[in-house]
Design a protein that fits this description.
By secondary structure, the chain is of the alpha+beta class. The protein is 38% helix and 13% strand. β7 and β8 form a beta hairpin.
Length: 522
């Protein structure tokens, strides 16, 4: 996807691309407000080997682009948080101010990128603000796009409006789908120019998660021969995020096992909704099994198991069908990093071996739910595989097919045209449909009851690339209403008629969508 024109925004005539290099970092006293959340900074206790503490470099003349009220409620923010004068949330989430208790930092990690060791990486354009004690738990907040850090390498530490919108919408869309993910609280924008493929405008997205610790954090300390730092990090994750592992006979074995299971289930989630991550590097893998770092992602349109959503992925390493295999590859990298703590390579391999069964069990459970099968029977795998093969041969739209399958009728003589018409080979579909009807009859499935179950497993609305692109194009023109509308739809993807939804939101992608390209700069 190529960058759009610069937005016509207030202050555009007063800014140049050079302004960012001299922009003053935020140094004013922290804001104190009774309505600001309570903060904790447990990550700081790890010590300076794990991070660099530094202020954000804020946006000039910021404005609101988008906000998630649902995420704000998760954090326990007041309903009017964005507009309260005492909170100055616009300035805080643009990097121009801090609330009392925030201690911004950038963490260091390393990792494998496209299967190759990349060495030291780190938060190159993300700044950790601290942890909010919220009614539902403790959550970390990050600003993405708030300027250079010591880990930016050749980057400018900035994010552009285009990529910020994509991350914001997909974070909230994945949550709506029930898939573990980082969240997004808001986007703020500015007329500050930022160079990518073209000149674009700057933005900051505020990300929310229980933890932003990645596989790459562990790889960093293992690679640099720092076993005590590695142990300190592992203990931190266990004590603060996975406490059940502490009660195990061998806590570090239990840690690897828990991450393995969470990753396996996450891969099953991705496959079941047709989600392609695009950059499954080890530094983009969450230690808590969250979907993290939304760059060149995509949801399948026409079903192609070999679909590559990332234009930069020339070898197809992260194609849709390869994601489960890459999940396991990344876990091997994590296990290698944890080996100084586990101490037994065979034990680590035995733990990783559980990935295959956990993934297959989870995936089969999700496929059965998508097909409305109430119980597991022998032969289900073949029934599912046969459908996917026919869909791939005819390039059937992935989301539409499974949503329409909910209306499948087992009545004698039913043609099931809504589903059947998606296939070029109608006779091939009919043959599969007969086997499916027999399977449903075997468990005495009732059409109406099954349809309700299937519509809770098969979303009607996903964030297709053309929907995100339309919202981006409107936003670059200074019109943010389309993004707000789309957000409300994506937060209720299984509903038949969520507020603001249109038929086009759930329809076939337009022809121009085929020209959209997303890459590592997205």
């Amino acid at each position: 996807m190529r960058g759009g024109p610069l937005a016509t925004l207030p202050g555009m005539d007063r800014l140049t691309a050079e302004d960012d290099t001299t922009m003053r970092a935020q140094t004013d006293a922290p804001l104190v407000s009774a309505h600001a959340p309570a903060w904790r900074n447990r990550f700081h206790a790890l010590g300076p080997a794990f991070y660099t503490e530094l202020p954000a470099r804020g946006l000039p003349d910021p404005h609101w682009v988008a906000r998630s009220d649902d995420c704000a409620r998760l954090l326990g923010l007041p309903d009017d948080w964005a507009e309260r004068p005492d909170l100055q949330a616009l300035q805080v989430f643009s990097g121009n101010a801090t609330w009392a208790g925030m201690r911004p930092l950038a963490s260091v990690y390393s990792g494998h990128q496209f299967g190759v060791w990349a060495g030291q990486l780190g938060d190159g354009r993300a700044l950790w603000l601290g942890e909010v004690d919220a009614p539902s738990g403790t959550f970390e907040l990050q600003l993405k796009g708030a300027g250079k850090t010591p880990y930016s390498r050749m980057g400018d530490g900035r994010a552009v409006l285009r990529s910020s919108i994509r991350e914001f919408l997909c974070s909230e869309a994945m949550h709506g789908l029930g898939i573990p993910t980082t969240r997004a609280l808001c986007i703020t924008g500015s007329a500050l120019p930022v160079r990518r493929e073209t000149l674009e405008t700057a933005a900051v997205v505020t990300r929310v998660a229980e933890s932003f610790i990645r596989f790459g954090h562990f790889e960093h300390f293992a690679h640099h021969g720092q076993p005590e730092a590695l142990r300190q990090l592992a203990d931190f994750v266990i004590d603060h995020h996975l406490p059940a592992c502490r009660d195990a006979e061998q806590p570090y074995h239990a840690l690897l096992g828990e991450v393995t299971r969470r990753t396996a289930r996450l891969m099953a989630d991705w496959q079941s909704v047709g989600f392609c991550h695009g950059v499954m590097n080890t530094d983009n893998m969450s230690i808590l099994g969250l979907t993290i770092d939304y760059g060149p992602y995509g949801f399948l349109d026409a079903f192609d198991p070999g679909h590559i959503c990332n234009h930069s992925d020339e070898q197809g390493r992260y194609a849709w069908a390869r994601q489960p295999q890459i999940g396991l590859w990344n876990l091997h990298a994590l296990a290698q990093a944890l080996l100084p703590l586990i101490g037994d390579g065979d034990a680590a391999l035995a733990i990783l071996e559980t990935y295959k069964s956990v993934f297959m069990d989870a995936l089969l459970a999700r496929w059965r739910a998508k097909l409305g099968l109430a119980a597991a029977e022998e032969g289900d795998h073949e029934l599912i595989d046969a459908l996917l093969r026919r869909m791939a041969t005819d390039r059937v739209d992935y989301t539409l097919a499974f949503r329409r399958l909910a209306s499948f009728s087992t009545a004698d003589g039913a043609r099931n045209d809504a589903m059947r018409d998606l296939f070029i080979d109608r006779a091939g579909f009919d043959a599969w449909a007969r086997g499916y009807a027999e399977r449903l009859a075997h468990e005495a499935s009732i059409d109406a009851e099954r349809a309700l179950r299937m519509n809770r497993a098969n979303p009607k609305f996903v964030l297709r690339n053309h929907l995100a692109e339309t919202a981006i194009r409107r936003a670059t023109e200074g019109e943010f209403g389309e993004m707000d509308r789309l957000l409300k739809v994506l937060q209720r993807p299984y509903d038949e008629h969520p507020p603001g939804a249109t038929d086009a939101d759930a329809g076939f992608p337009p022809e121009w969508a085929q020209t959209i390209e997303v890459s590592c700069s997205s």
